[in-house]
Amino acid sequence: MTKSILSRALAATLLAALALPPAAPAQPALAPAPAALPDLATLKTTLTLTDAQVRQITPVLDAQAKALAEVAAAQTKADTARTEANTKIAALLNDAQKTQFATLGGRRGGGGGRGRGAVDLGPLPEIHATVPNTLPGLLGKPLKWVSTGPLVVPVNDATHTVQSIKDPTISFIDGKWEIYATAHFTSTASNTRNAFNMVHLSFTDWKDAPKAPLYYMDNNPNFTGYKCAPEMFYFPPQKKWYFIFQTQPPVFCTSTTPGDPNSWTKPEPFFAQGTPMPNLPIDFHCIGDGTHMYMFFTGDDGNFYRSRTTYADFPKGFSNPVVAMRGTRNTVFEAGYTYKIKGTDKYLTLVEALGAGRYYRAYVADKLDGEWYPVEGFDTPEKPFAGKANMTFEAGVEPWSGQVSHGELIRETNDERMVLDPNNLMFLYQGIGDAENRGDYGALPYKLGLLRAVKAD
Hints:
Layout: H1 8-18, H2 40-47, H3 51-98, E1 144-147, E2 160-173, E3 176-187, E4 192-203, E5 215-216, E6 228-235, E7 240-246, E8 250-255, E9 268-269, E10 282-288, E11 292-298, E12 303-310, E13 322-326, E14 334-341, E15 347-355, E16 357-365, E17 373-374, E18 391-393, E19 405-409, E20 419-420, E21 426-431, E22 447-454
Parallel strand pairs: 1-18, 14-20
Antiparallel strand pairs: 1-22, 2-3, 3-4, 4-5, 6-7, 7-8, 8-9, 10-11, 11-12, 12-13, 14-15, 15-16, 16-17, 19-21, 21-22
């Protein structure tokens, strides 16, 4: 009977030529694909094989090729399973981050719930009817906005795959526009997958904005992990710039060169652990009146919250948050921002609302710890402060957004007073097309555009 195995001498010669051990160990995760085997013709020439030896080698090569193909297929299947698992884990972590303060907070709901258990969010203010619009400048007329095309869009680099750019804060510093914004991306630089972090860009003229390179903040070791919804301002008493954002709780950094994204100090918390909070505190912003620094934020629950500290104690010493204004999730949702109207004793708060798409409502108060009143004509989807109903697009620009979402008005000054010129209104906002506005919120392809207020006809 003819033996179907190789002679020991031929087997040794063949193994030496292939540089393969008789039994390879199991491949580790993410191992490189096995090297291709030499073909039979190459082996025959290299080893000077006889026809009989070729007939012996052929089944061995066929079996080896089959085994390597099975290994490669198993590796691909394992990589796919690993990627799917990582994506699911990231989604769970994002959800956990959103609710990590739930044990400290109040009940999420549409009616502005006071909170549960021992959490004290202050006395509940009244829900006020609208007041007539007596505001100055363009604010006192039916607002009409004209939008640019997308100016800041998701851009990938070698280590970042970006889905969206959102939640901008902007200042004009030393002849340049400096923007920090939220980005939703996957990054091999910081081992981040499908999560919120931030980007920075700068440019001298708006026409240059689409070409401005993005700096991904997770390249800085102090800015890895979940970080978003920034605000930036100058604080004259300390001669420092402040950069605040949510981690979920609010944190701050300082710098004297805010245009350098690597100049910010390591993030520090505003509040001590255990401070009573609503269920989902988000979108924090600060404003000062010369005596106190105020922090306002929303909770996706129909409430607008307030905390304050003295100028001397800032950024520490903030009081426990209280409800500053109530509504419903359709009227007081998120992305609030408060300004001082130039030439008046009025403060203006803009809050994103839910209707036929996201839009902004406007509220006024005589003082930062006072009562907030919705402004007539700036309070519905049909007559918003800023929204689809009062927005058109520049000549030659194809309409690209069906909503006006989380943005910031460009201020007259960069300091903590947040002074707004009512005769020169520009609003850097996040927008998205109606057809694109489907699926996972984090991955929605939001972009940044600029609204300019013009006189209504």
